[in-house]
Amino acid sequence: MARVKLNLPETFPFSTEIPIRIGDINYGAHLGHDSILPLTHEARVQFLAAMGYNEGDIEGLAYLMADAAIIYKEQAFYGQTLKIEIGVQDFTPKGCDFVYRITDKKTEAEIARVKTGMVFFDYRKGKIARVPNDFKVRFTPIEDAI
């Protein structure tokens, strides 16, 4: 079986800490797969707020999730606090990827890697829109912009 691969940046512009709640635990007594995306969603909302944005207004546009990939590395359990680092990469004309490294806050063991592919959307026009240039410039390394 071919495995999903996800390259992460060397550094991330944002990180947050989120404790694992009892509702995040599955019948195997560990972090359930169905809780990973909501945890990354919470982290992404915090990231956007720290950058002066919200999901409905990124330079006048919103975004929609087009795809997601999760690579599990280790189990996580109730009572652990997760450190979720977020970066933005792989811009296309209409979207980009938000990438996440999830680690245990205490041990720094990598729990998961996640990618959410986002497409920008103009709700006033009801259609997909181009990535706002100011947003792209904030997350494009200088060497890539030259």
Describe the model.
This protein has 146 residues and is of the alpha+beta class. It has a single domain, classed as Roll (Thiol Ester Dehydrase, Chain A), CATH 3.10.129. It is built from three helices and six strands. The protein has helices at 33-50, 133-139, 142-145; strands spanning 14-19, 62-72, 81-89, 95-104, 110-122, 127-128. Strands 1, 2, 3, 4, 5 and 6 form a six-stranded antiparallel β-sheet that branches. The longest helix has 18 residues, at 33-50.
Let me know the CATH homologous superfamily: Hotdog Thioesterase
What characterizes the major β-sheet?
Answer: 6 strands, antiparallel
Give the helix/strand class: alpha+beta
Radius of gyration over all CA atoms, rounded? 16 Å
How helix-rich are the residues, as a percent range?
Answer: 10-25%
Summarize model confidence as the mean pLDDT: 94
CATH class: Alpha Beta
**Number of DSSP strand runs:** 6
CATH architecture: Roll
Query: What are the secondary-structure elements, in order, as H or E?
Result: EHEEEEEHH
CATH topology: Thiol Ester Dehydrase, Chain A
Number of contiguous helices: 3
Question: What's the short story on this structure?
Answer:
By secondary structure, this protein is α+β, with helices and mostly antiparallel strands. It has a single domain (14-140), classed as Hotdog Thioesterase (Thiol Ester Dehydrase, Chain A), CATH 3.10.129.10.
Features:
about 150 residues, alpha+beta, Thiol Ester Dehydrase, Chain A, 6-stranded antiparallel sheet, 3 helices
What order do the helices and strands come in, and which of them pair?
Elements: E1 14-19, H1 33-50, E2 62-72, E3 81-89, E4 95-104, E5 110-122, E6 127-128, H2 133-139, H3 142-145
